[in-house]
Amino acid sequence: MSLPDRTIQAPFPKAEYESRVDRVKGRMEARGIDVLVSTEPANIAYLTGYDAWSWYTPQAVVVALDLDEPLWIGREQDMACALWATHLDERSILGYSDDHITDVDRHGMDCVAGQLVARGLGAARIGTEDDGICLTPRGARHLRAGVPGASFVDADLLVNWVRTVKSPAEIDVMRDAGRLALTGMRTAVEVIAPGVRECDAAAEIYRALIAGTGDIGGDAPWRPTMPSGAKTVTPHLSWTDAPYPSETAVNIELGGCRHQYHVGLSRTVHLGPAPEPLRRLAGATVAGFHAMLERVEPGATCDEVQGAFRAEVARHGYEKTSRCGYSIGLGFPTGAWVERTASLMEGDRTVLEPNMTFHLVLGMWAAESGFMFSETVAVTEGGFEALAPFERELVVKA
Amino acid sequence: MSLPDRTIQAPFPKAEYESRVDRVKGRMEARGIDVLVSTEPANIAYLTGYDAWSWYTPQAVVVALDLDEPLWIGREQDMACALWATHLDERSILGYSDDHITDVDRHGMDCVAGQLVARGLGAARIGTEDDGICLTPRGARHLRAGVPGASFVDADLLVNWVRTVKSPAEIDVMRDAGRLALTGMRTAVEVIAPGVRECDAAAEIYRALIAGTGDIGGDAPWRPTMPSGAKTVTPHLSWTDAPYPSETAVNIELGGCRHQYHVGLSRTVHLGPAPEPLRRLAGATVAGFHAMLERVEPGATCDEVQGAFRAEVARHGYEKTSRCGYSIGLGFPTGAWVERTASLMEGDRTVLEPNMTFHLVLGMWAAESGFMFSETVAVTEGGFEALAPFERELVVKA
Fold first, then answer.
1. Which of A60, A373, B80, B117 makes the best surface tag, with the fewest CB within 10 Å?
2. pLDDT above 70: residue B89
3. pLDDT confidence tier of residue A174, bands split at 50, 70 and 90
């Protein structure tokens, strides 16, 4: 297939991607992996810049110790996306024809396997991302069958752990995503009001997140959630066409999205005077958040950070059973904005380092009330930087 | 875990879901499958109504010939989503705790396996969706290991083929999605203009798609694409912050989304007078589209329908190598809006039936010009119904 002209639009310079690939190769060597077939969309974007929404047909980026740069392999029509979105040499961009789609015999992973064999990697030790959404069991079978002389190992999270510590350039992009999140939250607080349809509020939030500011726009974010009233118990359902009632709590969780890097931010907005139990729960949660922040610094463990929250809310008589946050960064709709590595949960011994970024998520469910509070922070040499600091309280629109 | 109160918000009545499950069970019986573990988000929604954006942690719907209704199994915090989004009895809604997430030993699929064994299905013939994004190789291994007495078969597309023929109620929802698509396209044509930033145009399109009309709002759609100029060769990249130049072609592909049912619609908008080669290409493509429509009726095959397009554009000296469309309906960001069943491509012998719905996608790339044109139709007894009929021409804003 002859490739069209390109104007490279990767968000980072070529050297940034080379440094990422070098770090990934270091981990591959340490684990005796010759070839990594990366299929999780956020990992593909991390390694090459490729951020097209095309994961519904098979695609992969191949990193091999013996190859100077990665290969991008996907559907023929998406080769042009790879050409524009990455710094890869066009000889490293390879595709399969549409007769691999919805075919009972052919599969896009046959093409990946064929490229490995053609490049003399047929006897390699190959790592695959066995729990990253997008590699399917059938895709994995086709890959293995097509490289019968290779051995396979589960290399899930190998790239994700490299992603967990951001570069200064990534932190800059996440600062932009934080500004987008703030724009979105300010809009949410402004438009959510009695009588306004939930869908109209969602429409304005999307507009704010994507139109962004005068200097930067946003990419399509993971879907904001904004349930109200009794429905606040449901964390991941959509809005409806119904208008907000005159007195209710609305739990808003949204993310600013810049070059697919997300910064999460959540608040509860209360329409009408807030009942005492909710105000008490909010006070305890915010106190717990501040207690957590005090522990965010290099050298602390995830377990210690989450423990500070639990200890503080316990003093107020509350308990949280689910985790208190996780490593955040590059995210696509296949995997939300969760990096699947460090978790702020009991027993997670991951040690915080500068330029790790965490979404501290403090959804609290007491008997009568639910309260949602989250922010995203970057670990710094001296502590942390809040990437989207918004009024740290229950927002009351009385 | 004790479950909260519910207000069922499933988009269809219980009988609709029962009829879907019955049809799925019929296909299972025909293939000797006792238990289906469905993991593709659109299939989960089809079988139960569950449409939360929560697929980034393991989840499944289990249909068993021996069980009256399906089981929903996922993360504990999403049980409340299942309670609100489905008609399932609360005893059919089951969850695993957060210590199954990011754990090297535990996996959410252990919980699915455990439920199968507990219900006496440990020796069943179990079907899994081996090429539907969301079942990972590791998830599949945990499922198999947890039901060691079972046998497994690839049941990918079993539910998708049932979904391919819509019910009258589904067609109604898709009519609504079509109205949303029209609102989005009218807004796109209005806002895309020289000097307008691509992100600002995207923001207004999202707003229109989600705010919808006075009577219905939209859900979060698959991301619209709207590349301009030389970048029109890239089908799946995002917008940028750059303003549209004064003379350029913009290829818009968007979908209206109602209860996660999508109706696709594409047009090319040309800013400034359209060059002759583009007008010629557009004329041929639209003529091909009409030739295709004449063949859309029960009894025709997908191959015949796409052949009518190819024959017509060939008369004008053009050729199209990729497919001309596909079955469309329920869609989540994991799989776009593509049903992965019938394709309007050469050799696809699927016979059209009333209430099948197709996105006819006619992206054309000639040497100097690209032209994008698509519409979504429902097959009727007498032919077809256009679900989002928009001006069938190159849209010129001179």
1. B117
2. yes
3. very high
Which helix (H) or strand (E) segment holds residue B173: the answer is helix B168-191
How far is it, in rounded angstroms, from Cα A325 to Cα A393? 18
Residue A231 backbone dihedrals phi, psi, to 5 degrees: -75, -5
- The residues of chain B that CATH labels 3.40.350.10 are 14-163
Question: Is residue A81 exposed (0-12), middle (13-18) or buried (19+ Cβ within 10 Å)?
Answer: buried
CA distance B279 to chain A (A): 21
Secondary-structure breakdown of chain A: helix, strand, coil percentages, each rounded to the nearest 5? 35, 25, 40
Is the pLDDT at B104 greater than 90? The verdict is no
- Where in the sequence of chain A do the CATH 3.90.230.10 domains occur? 165-397
Token pair for A16: 């940034």
Distance from CA of B232 to the nearest CA of A (A): 10
CA A47, A50, A51, A57 torsion-angle sign: negative
Distance CA B231, CA B252 (A): 12
Give CATH superfamily name and number for B14-163.
Answer: Creatinase/prolidase N-terminal domain (3.40.350.10)
Under 8 Å CB-to-CB from B295, ≥6 apart: which residues?
Answer: B304, B305, B307, B308
Per-residue tokens: B355: 């209430």
CA distance B351 to A352: 58
Choose the closest CB to B223 out of A53, A81, A321: A53
Structure tokens at B392: 């069938």
pTM above 0.90, yes or no: yes
Helix (H, G, I), strand (E, B) or coil at A154: strand
The better pLDDT of the pair A88, A230 is held by A88
The pLDDT value recorded for residue A261 is 98
How many Å apart are CA B298 and CA A123, to the nearest integer?
51
Q: Is the CB of A56 less than 8 angstroms away from the CB of B102?
A: no
Residue A203 near residue A191 (C-beta atoms within 8 A): no
How far lies B330's CA from each of A80, A323, B50, B348, in Å? 28, 32, 12, 21
Residue of chain A whose alpha carbon sits nearest to that of B85: A237
| CB-CB neighbors (< 8 A) of B217 in chain A | 197-200, 202-203, 239-241
Residue type, B212: G
Q: What is the DSSP letter of B90?
A: G
Q: Which CATH class is domain A165-397?
A: alpha beta
* A138–B136 C-beta distance less than 8 A: no
Q: How many residues does chain A have?
A: 398
- The DSSP annotation for A264-328 comes to EEEEEEEESSPPHHHHHHHHHHHHHHHHHHHH-STT-BHHHHHHHHHHHHHHTT----S--EEEE
